[in-house]
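Our preliminary data section would be incomplete without showing what the modeling component actually yields. Below, a chain of 293 amino acids is followed by its predicted structure, encoded as C-alpha cells that our downstream tools consume directly.
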Amino acid sequence: MRHHVAGLALLIWLLGTAVVSAQTTQFQASLAQETASAQDPAPATPPPDAPATAPPPEPQEPVAVKQVSEERGFVRSLFSQLGQDLKHMPRRNSLYWLAAGSGLALAVHPADDDINARLVGSDFADTFFAPGKWLGSSAFIFSASAATYIVGRATHKPRVRHMGMDFLEAAILSEGITQLIKVAVRRDRPVNPDGSDNPGYAFPSGHATITFAAATVFQQHFGWKAAVPTYLVASYVAISRLHDNRHFASDVAFGATDGIIIGRSVTWHGRNSFAITPTIVPGGGGLMVMTQF
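Predicted structure:
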C-alpha cells in the first residue's frame, strides 16, 4: 500500500507542476497589470475638438524579448547569458522548488524498486514509452533548440531567436548541472531484469531535467495555455525512464525539480538576483552583496 501511495504521489507531482508553474506566472502577470492600472491616473476628458484616443496597448507577453544586436556574435551572447542565468538561480523561488522536489524524492525513495518492477515487462508499455528516450535525449533537445534560434535569426524574428537562445541555455545548464550532481552522488542505475548492471549514474535523471527545463522555458514564453501540453510531454519522458529501468522514481522527481529551477532561471531576464559592490567600512573596506528575491 505504501508503494502505491508513493507512485501516485510521484505522478501527481509530475503532472501538478504544470498547474503550479502556470498559475504562478499568471498570478504575477495579473498582479503587474493591476499595479500598473492602480498607478495610472484617470484620463482627463478631452475637449470636443480633440482627436480620437489611440487604441489600448496589447497585453504584456509572459517574457519580454531580450534586446540583442543582430551583429553580436552567437558565442559571445551565449556565454554572457549563461553567466546571467547562474546569477538568477539563488532565489527564494528556487529554494521553494528545491525543497518540494527533494522532499518528494525522499518520500518515494523507499518505493523505488517496486515502482520500476511494476512498469517493466509489459508489451503495451514497451511500445507506448519507446519514443521517450529519444524525445528527452540531449541530441534531440539541442537540435530543436539550435533550429529554433537559427530560424529566428534568419527570419529576423527576435522573439523566436530569444526563445531558441533560452532553450540552448537551459539545455547546457541542464547537462552541466546534472553531470556534476551525478558524479557527486554516484548512485548506481537500477539493475537489469537479467541481473546485469546498467552503466553510468542514476541521480538525477538527465532526461527529466532537460525536458522539464525546456517545458518551463516554453511555458514562460507562451503562458499558462502552453503549460499543460509541454509538461505532459516532459512527464511522459520522465516516466519512460522508469519503464526503461534507467532511473528510479526519486531520480526523475529530483530531475524534474532541477529542470523547473533551470527553466525559470534562464527566463528571469533583467532581474539580477544579486550584485557585489566594493564598500568602505570603519577601519578598512569590504564587499557588499545585495540580493533580490
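The first strand starts at residue 274 and ends at 281. The chain has one domain: 9-28+63-291. Preliminary results of this kind motivate Aim 1 of the renewal.
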